[in-house]
Protein backbone atom coordinates (compact mmCIF):
# COMPACT_ATOMS: atom_id res chain seq x y z
CA UNK A 1 0.00 0.00 0.00
CA UNK A 2 1.32 3.47 -0.88
CA UNK A 3 -1.64 5.66 -0.02
CA UNK A 4 -0.49 9.14 1.01
CA UNK A 5 -2.34 10.96 3.76
CA UNK A 6 -1.58 14.65 4.30
CA UNK A 7 -3.21 15.86 7.51
CA UNK A 8 -3.68 19.57 8.25
CA UNK A 9 -0.20 20.48 7.11
CA UNK A 10 1.11 24.07 7.24
CA UNK A 11 4.37 25.82 6.37
CA UNK A 12 5.44 29.45 6.69
CA UNK A 13 8.92 30.46 5.57
CA UNK A 14 11.00 32.72 7.84
CA UNK A 15 11.13 35.54 5.29
CA UNK A 16 7.33 35.63 4.84
CA UNK A 17 4.35 36.41 7.06
CA UNK A 18 1.96 34.58 4.72
CA UNK A 19 1.81 30.76 4.92
CA UNK A 20 3.07 28.98 1.82
CA UNK A 21 0.77 26.08 2.74
CA UNK A 22 -2.08 26.72 5.15
CA UNK A 23 -3.85 23.83 6.95
CA UNK A 24 -4.00 21.54 3.90
CA UNK A 25 -5.41 18.01 4.04
CA UNK A 26 -5.34 15.64 1.07
CA UNK A 27 -5.53 11.89 0.47
CA UNK A 28 -3.77 10.37 -2.54
CA UNK A 29 -5.01 6.85 -3.14
CA UNK A 30 -2.77 3.87 -3.72
CA UNK A 31 -1.46 3.90 -7.35
CA UNK A 32 -3.25 7.16 -8.08
CA UNK A 33 -1.81 9.91 -10.29
CA UNK A 34 -2.57 13.13 -8.38
CA UNK A 35 -1.81 16.49 -9.97
CA UNK A 36 -1.24 19.61 -7.85
CA UNK A 37 -2.23 22.51 -10.10
CA UNK A 38 -2.01 26.21 -9.51
CA UNK A 39 -0.20 29.46 -10.35
CA UNK A 40 3.32 30.29 -9.22
CA UNK A 41 3.52 30.86 -5.48
CA UNK A 42 0.34 28.93 -4.61
CA UNK A 43 2.20 26.40 -2.41
CA UNK A 44 2.13 23.31 -4.63
CA UNK A 45 5.92 22.77 -4.70
CA UNK A 46 6.19 23.42 -0.95
CA UNK A 47 3.52 20.78 -0.36
CA UNK A 48 5.38 18.32 -2.59
CA UNK A 49 8.67 19.01 -0.81
CA UNK A 50 7.06 18.33 2.57
CA UNK A 51 5.85 14.95 1.27
CA UNK A 52 9.41 14.32 0.07
CA UNK A 53 10.96 15.35 3.38
CA UNK A 54 12.89 18.25 1.86
CA UNK A 55 10.87 20.73 3.95
CA UNK A 56 9.68 20.24 7.52
CA UNK A 57 6.09 21.32 8.26
CA UNK A 58 5.24 23.79 11.02
CA UNK A 59 2.12 21.74 11.78
CA UNK A 60 0.41 18.59 10.58
CA UNK A 61 1.80 15.25 9.44
CA UNK A 62 2.42 13.07 6.39
CA UNK A 63 1.68 9.34 6.22
CA UNK A 64 2.81 7.01 3.43
CA UNK A 65 1.02 3.70 3.69
CA UNK A 66 0.62 3.08 7.39
CA UNK A 67 3.85 4.90 8.36
CA UNK A 68 4.03 8.41 9.78
CA UNK A 69 7.01 9.78 7.82
CA UNK A 70 6.81 13.38 9.05
CA UNK A 71 10.09 13.11 10.97
CA UNK A 72 11.87 10.76 8.57
CA UNK A 73 14.58 11.94 6.14
CA UNK A 74 13.89 11.55 2.41
CA UNK A 75 16.02 8.41 2.05
CA UNK A 76 13.78 6.52 4.48
CA UNK A 77 10.45 7.46 2.85
CA UNK A 78 10.62 5.07 -0.15
CA UNK A 79 10.18 7.94 -2.57
CA UNK A 80 11.83 9.07 -5.78
CA UNK A 81 11.70 12.60 -7.16
CA UNK A 82 12.04 14.15 -10.61
CA UNK A 83 12.92 17.84 -10.54
CA UNK A 84 12.19 20.65 -12.98
CA UNK A 85 15.85 20.72 -14.03
CA UNK A 86 17.18 17.47 -15.47
CA UNK A 87 19.81 17.19 -12.70
CA UNK A 88 21.69 14.44 -14.55
CA UNK A 89 25.40 13.98 -13.91
CA UNK A 90 27.28 15.33 -16.96
CA UNK A 91 30.38 13.14 -16.37
CA UNK A 92 28.39 9.89 -16.30
CA UNK A 93 26.91 7.89 -19.13
CA UNK A 94 23.17 7.36 -19.37
CA UNK A 95 23.62 3.86 -17.96
CA UNK A 96 25.57 5.14 -14.95
CA UNK A 97 23.12 8.00 -14.39
CA UNK A 98 20.15 5.65 -14.27
CA UNK A 99 21.91 3.17 -11.99
CA UNK A 100 23.48 5.73 -9.65
CA UNK A 101 20.92 5.35 -6.84
CA UNK A 102 21.13 1.56 -6.94
CA UNK A 103 24.91 1.76 -6.79
CA UNK A 104 24.68 4.00 -3.71
CA UNK A 105 22.54 1.28 -2.11
CA UNK A 106 25.31 -1.25 -2.90
CA UNK A 107 23.04 -3.41 -4.99
CA UNK A 108 24.69 -6.36 -6.81
CA UNK A 109 25.98 -5.44 -10.30
CA UNK A 110 23.73 -8.04 -11.95
CA UNK A 111 20.63 -6.57 -10.29
CA UNK A 112 21.67 -3.03 -11.26
CA UNK A 113 22.13 -4.11 -14.89
CA UNK A 114 18.73 -5.83 -15.00
CA UNK A 115 16.82 -2.95 -13.43
CA UNK A 116 18.59 -0.28 -15.50
CA UNK A 117 17.83 -2.14 -18.73
CA UNK A 118 14.18 -2.47 -17.70
CA UNK A 119 13.85 1.25 -16.90
CA UNK A 120 15.69 2.20 -20.08
CA UNK A 121 13.33 -0.01 -22.08
CA UNK A 122 10.25 1.64 -20.59
CA UNK A 123 11.60 5.07 -21.57
CA UNK A 124 13.07 4.04 -24.95
CA UNK A 125 16.63 4.82 -23.88
CA UNK A 126 18.37 1.56 -24.86
CA UNK A 127 20.24 3.10 -27.85
CA UNK A 128 21.69 5.86 -25.65
CA UNK A 129 23.03 3.94 -22.62
CA UNK A 130 26.66 4.56 -23.56
CA UNK A 131 26.19 8.26 -24.34
CA UNK A 132 26.82 11.24 -22.08
CA UNK A 133 24.10 13.84 -21.31
CA UNK A 134 25.75 16.43 -23.58
CA UNK A 135 25.06 14.09 -26.51
CA UNK A 136 21.32 13.95 -25.76
CA UNK A 137 18.39 16.23 -26.56
CA UNK A 138 16.43 17.94 -23.79
CA UNK A 139 13.66 15.38 -24.02
CA UNK A 140 16.13 12.50 -23.80
CA UNK A 141 17.83 14.02 -20.75
CA UNK A 142 14.45 14.36 -19.06
CA UNK A 143 13.73 10.71 -19.81
CA UNK A 144 17.03 9.81 -18.15
CA UNK A 145 15.93 11.72 -15.03
CA UNK A 146 12.62 9.84 -14.95
CA UNK A 147 14.35 6.49 -15.53
CA UNK A 148 16.75 7.22 -12.65
CA UNK A 149 13.70 7.73 -10.41
CA UNK A 150 11.64 4.70 -11.43
CA UNK A 151 14.61 2.30 -11.37
CA UNK A 152 14.53 2.64 -7.58
CA UNK A 153 11.05 1.05 -7.61
CA UNK A 154 9.76 3.66 -5.16
CA UNK A 155 6.49 3.44 -3.29
CA UNK A 156 5.85 7.06 -4.28
CA UNK A 157 6.99 9.03 -7.33
CA UNK A 158 7.12 12.82 -6.98
CA UNK A 159 7.45 15.10 -10.03
CA UNK A 160 8.01 18.86 -9.86
CA UNK A 161 7.14 20.43 -13.25
CA UNK A 162 9.31 17.91 -15.18
CA UNK A 163 8.17 19.13 -18.62
CA UNK A 164 8.54 22.87 -18.17
CA UNK A 165 12.05 23.02 -19.68
CA UNK A 166 10.97 21.30 -22.91
CA UNK A 167 9.73 23.07 -26.01
CA UNK A 168 6.08 22.75 -27.01
CA UNK A 169 6.49 19.80 -29.41
CA UNK A 170 8.70 17.81 -27.03
CA UNK A 171 6.32 18.54 -24.18
CA UNK A 172 3.41 17.12 -26.16
CA UNK A 173 5.36 13.98 -27.07
CA UNK A 174 6.79 13.39 -23.61
CA UNK A 175 3.43 13.97 -21.94
CA UNK A 176 1.97 10.99 -23.80
CA UNK A 177 5.04 8.88 -22.98
CA UNK A 178 4.82 9.81 -19.30
CA UNK A 179 1.13 8.90 -19.07
CA UNK A 180 1.80 5.50 -20.64
CA UNK A 181 4.77 4.94 -18.30
CA UNK A 182 2.84 5.72 -15.11
CA UNK A 183 0.03 3.41 -16.20
CA UNK A 184 2.59 0.63 -16.63
CA UNK A 185 4.54 1.04 -13.39
CA UNK A 186 1.39 1.73 -11.29
CA UNK A 187 3.24 3.79 -8.70
CA UNK A 188 1.45 6.34 -6.52
CA UNK A 189 2.41 9.65 -8.13
CA UNK A 190 2.16 13.33 -7.20
CA UNK A 191 2.79 15.68 -10.11
CA UNK A 192 3.19 19.45 -9.71
CA UNK A 193 2.42 21.79 -12.61
CA UNK A 194 1.03 25.21 -13.47
CA UNK A 195 0.01 23.93 -16.93
CA UNK A 196 -3.70 23.10 -16.94
CA UNK A 197 -3.38 21.05 -20.16
CA UNK A 198 -0.88 18.76 -18.43
CA UNK A 199 -3.18 18.49 -15.43
CA UNK A 200 -6.26 17.61 -17.48
CA UNK A 201 -4.46 15.08 -19.67
CA UNK A 202 -2.34 13.31 -17.03
CA UNK A 203 -4.14 13.25 -13.70
CA UNK A 204 -6.55 10.70 -12.27
CA UNK A 205 -7.55 13.60 -10.02
CA UNK A 206 -6.55 17.26 -9.81
CA UNK A 207 -6.10 19.36 -6.67
CA UNK A 208 -6.36 23.04 -7.61
CA UNK A 209 -4.38 25.30 -5.26
CA UNK A 210 -4.37 29.01 -4.57
CA UNK A 211 -2.63 31.02 -1.84
CA UNK A 212 -1.67 27.95 0.17
CA UNK A 213 -5.13 26.34 0.07
CA UNK A 214 -6.72 23.55 -1.97
CA UNK A 215 -9.89 24.89 -3.59
CA UNK A 216 -11.14 21.74 -5.32
CA UNK A 217 -10.13 18.09 -5.69
CA UNK A 218 -11.84 15.94 -8.30
CA UNK A 219 -11.52 14.12 -11.61
CA UNK A 220 -10.18 16.32 -14.44
CA UNK A 221 -13.40 16.69 -16.41
CA UNK A 222 -15.42 17.28 -13.25
CA UNK A 223 -13.11 20.15 -12.32
CA UNK A 224 -13.36 21.43 -15.91
CA UNK A 225 -17.14 21.22 -16.25
CA UNK A 226 -18.11 21.86 -12.62
CA UNK A 227 -15.58 24.26 -11.06
CA UNK A 228 -16.32 24.98 -7.41
CA UNK A 229 -15.16 28.61 -7.59
CA UNK A 230 -14.65 31.42 -10.07
CA UNK A 231 -10.87 31.04 -9.74
CA UNK A 232 -10.95 27.35 -10.67
CA UNK A 233 -13.13 28.04 -13.71
CA UNK A 234 -10.94 30.90 -14.88
CA UNK A 235 -7.64 29.06 -14.27
CA UNK A 236 -8.58 25.85 -16.10
CA UNK A 237 -9.50 25.96 -19.77
CA UNK A 238 -8.32 27.78 -22.87
CA UNK A 239 -10.10 30.10 -23.23
CA UNK A 240 -11.05 30.37 -19.54
CA UNK A 241 -14.66 29.99 -18.48
CA UNK A 242 -16.80 33.08 -19.14
CA UNK A 243 -18.19 34.78 -16.04
CA UNK A 244 -20.98 37.31 -16.56
CA UNK A 245 -22.50 39.38 -13.78
CA UNK A 246 -26.29 39.15 -14.04
CA UNK A 247 -29.11 40.67 -12.02
CA UNK A 248 -31.73 38.41 -10.44
CA UNK A 249 -35.50 38.96 -10.36
CA UNK A 250 -37.90 36.64 -8.52
CA UNK A 251 -41.60 35.97 -8.83
CA UNK A 252 -43.68 33.16 -7.32
CA UNK A 253 -40.56 31.13 -6.44
CA UNK A 254 -39.12 31.38 -9.95
CA UNK A 255 -36.06 33.37 -10.96
CA UNK A 256 -34.90 35.14 -14.09
CA UNK A 257 -31.53 36.73 -14.67
CA UNK A 258 -30.98 39.92 -16.65
CA UNK A 259 -28.04 40.06 -19.05
CA UNK A 260 -27.47 43.02 -21.36
CA UNK A 261 -31.08 44.15 -20.95
CA UNK A 262 -32.33 40.65 -21.79
CA UNK A 263 -33.72 37.95 -19.50
CA UNK A 264 -32.95 34.23 -19.09
CA UNK A 265 -34.65 31.59 -17.03
CA UNK A 266 -32.69 30.54 -13.96
CA UNK A 267 -32.82 27.42 -11.75
CA UNK A 268 -34.75 27.37 -8.44
CA UNK A 269 -31.52 27.59 -6.40
CA UNK A 270 -31.02 31.10 -7.74
CA UNK A 271 -34.52 32.10 -6.60
CA UNK A 272 -33.76 30.79 -3.11
CA UNK A 273 -30.30 32.33 -2.80
CA UNK A 274 -31.52 35.83 -1.98
CA UNK A 275 -28.66 37.44 -3.91
CA UNK A 276 -29.54 40.55 -5.95
CA UNK A 277 -27.03 39.53 -8.61
CA UNK A 278 -24.97 36.43 -9.38
CA UNK A 279 -22.20 35.25 -11.70
CA UNK A 280 -23.17 33.10 -14.66
CA UNK A 281 -20.25 30.85 -15.65
CA UNK A 282 -20.26 29.12 -19.03
CA UNK A 283 -17.52 27.58 -21.17
CA UNK A 284 -16.98 29.04 -24.65
CA UNK A 285 -17.66 25.69 -26.36
CA UNK A 286 -21.02 25.31 -24.59
CA UNK A 287 -22.53 28.37 -26.29
CA UNK A 288 -24.31 27.94 -29.62
CA UNK A 289 -24.00 30.92 -31.98
CA UNK A 290 -26.46 31.72 -34.77
CA UNK A 291 -27.53 34.69 -36.90
CA UNK A 292 -31.11 34.65 -35.61
CA UNK A 293 -31.77 37.89 -33.77
CA UNK A 294 -34.19 38.34 -30.92
CA UNK A 295 -33.78 37.23 -27.30
CA UNK A 296 -35.39 34.00 -26.16
CA UNK A 297 -36.05 32.38 -22.78
CA UNK A 298 -32.77 30.45 -23.05
CA UNK A 299 -30.66 32.79 -25.20
CA UNK A 300 -29.57 36.38 -25.72
CA UNK A 301 -28.14 38.66 -28.39
CA UNK A 302 -24.54 39.85 -28.52
CA UNK A 303 -22.22 41.77 -30.86
CA UNK A 304 -19.16 40.08 -32.38
CA UNK A 305 -16.05 42.19 -31.72
CA UNK A 306 -13.12 39.95 -32.69
CA UNK A 307 -13.08 36.79 -34.82
CA UNK A 308 -10.00 34.53 -34.57
CA UNK A 309 -9.70 31.56 -36.98
CA UNK A 310 -7.81 28.81 -35.12
CA UNK A 311 -7.85 26.04 -37.70
CA UNK A 312 -10.33 23.56 -36.26
CA UNK A 313 -12.65 26.28 -34.92
CA UNK A 314 -13.36 29.99 -34.61
CA UNK A 315 -12.89 31.90 -31.38
CA UNK A 316 -15.29 34.85 -31.18
CA UNK A 317 -15.02 37.64 -28.64
CA UNK A 318 -18.48 39.16 -28.22
CA UNK A 319 -19.99 41.90 -26.10
CA UNK A 320 -23.22 41.75 -24.11
CA UNK A 321 -23.84 45.22 -22.81
CA UNK A 322 -20.54 46.24 -21.21
CA UNK A 323 -19.39 42.65 -20.60
CA UNK A 324 -17.25 40.44 -22.84
CA UNK A 325 -17.39 36.70 -23.40
CA UNK A 326 -15.70 34.11 -25.62
CA UNK A 327 -17.56 31.74 -27.93
CA UNK A 328 -16.12 28.74 -29.80
CA UNK A 329 -17.90 27.78 -33.01
CA UNK A 330 -17.21 25.76 -36.13
CA UNK A 331 -14.47 26.91 -38.50
CA UNK A 332 -16.87 27.60 -41.40
CA UNK A 333 -19.31 29.73 -39.38
CA UNK A 334 -19.86 32.96 -41.35
CA UNK A 335 -19.27 35.85 -38.97
CA UNK A 336 -17.44 39.16 -39.04
CA UNK A 337 -16.72 41.89 -36.46
CA UNK A 338 -19.70 44.13 -35.78
CA UNK A 339 -22.25 41.47 -36.63
CA UNK A 340 -25.19 40.80 -34.33
CA UNK A 341 -25.35 37.21 -33.05
CA UNK A 342 -27.79 35.15 -31.05
CA UNK A 343 -26.09 33.11 -28.32
CA UNK A 344 -27.73 30.13 -26.68
CA UNK A 345 -25.84 28.59 -23.73
CA UNK A 346 -26.38 24.96 -22.79
CA UNK A 347 -28.37 25.56 -19.63
CA UNK A 348 -27.16 22.41 -17.85
CA UNK A 349 -23.56 23.55 -18.36
CA UNK A 350 -24.00 26.90 -16.60
CA UNK A 351 -22.40 27.38 -13.18
CA UNK A 352 -24.11 29.92 -10.93
CA UNK A 353 -21.83 31.59 -8.38
CA UNK A 354 -22.10 34.21 -5.66
CA UNK A 355 -20.59 37.56 -6.63
CA UNK A 356 -19.37 38.11 -3.06
CA UNK A 357 -16.82 35.28 -2.98
CA UNK A 358 -16.99 33.54 -6.39
CA UNK A 359 -18.22 30.26 -4.87
CA UNK A 360 -20.86 28.10 -6.55
CA UNK A 361 -24.32 28.67 -5.10
CA UNK A 362 -25.40 25.68 -3.04
CA UNK A 363 -21.83 24.58 -2.21
Describe this protein with a few key phrases.
elongated, 9 helices, OB fold (Dihydrolipoamide Acetyltransferase, E2P), 2 domains, Rossmann fold, five-stranded antiparallel beta sheet, 20 strands, 363 residues, alpha+beta
**Number of alpha- plus pi-helical segments:** 9
Name of the level-1 CATH class of the largest domain: Alpha Beta
Give the beta-strand count: 20
Total count of domains: 2
CATH architecture annotation of the largest domain: 3-Layer(aba) Sandwich
Furnish the topology, listing elements before pairings.
Blueprint: E1 4-11, E2 21-28, E3 33-37, H1 44-52, E4 59-64, E5 67-68, E6 79-82, H2 94-104, H3 109-122, H4 138-150, E7 156-160, H5 168-185, E8 188-193, H6 196-202, E9 205-210, E10 213-218, H7 220-225, H8 230-235, E11 242-251, E12 254-259, E13 262-266, H9 268-273, E14 277-282, E15 287-290, E16 300-309, E17 313-320, E18 323-330, E19 340-345, E20 351-354
Parallel strand pairs: 3-8, 3-9, 6-7, 7-8
Antiparallel strand pairs: 1-2, 1-4, 4-5, 9-10, 11-12, 11-14, 12-13, 14-20, 15-19, 16-17, 16-19, 17-18
Helix pairs in contact: 2-3, 2-4, 3-4, 4-5
Amino acid sequence: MAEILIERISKTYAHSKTPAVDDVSLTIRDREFMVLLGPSGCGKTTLLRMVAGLEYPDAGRVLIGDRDVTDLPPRKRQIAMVFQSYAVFPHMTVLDNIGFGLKMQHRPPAEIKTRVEKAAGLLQLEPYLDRFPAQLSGGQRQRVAVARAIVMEPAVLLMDEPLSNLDALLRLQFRAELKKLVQEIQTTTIYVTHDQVEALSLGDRIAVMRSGHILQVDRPMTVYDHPATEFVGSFIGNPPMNFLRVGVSRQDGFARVAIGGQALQAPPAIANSGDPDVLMGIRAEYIQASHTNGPTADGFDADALVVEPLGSHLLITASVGDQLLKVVTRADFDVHPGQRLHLQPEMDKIRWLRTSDGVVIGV
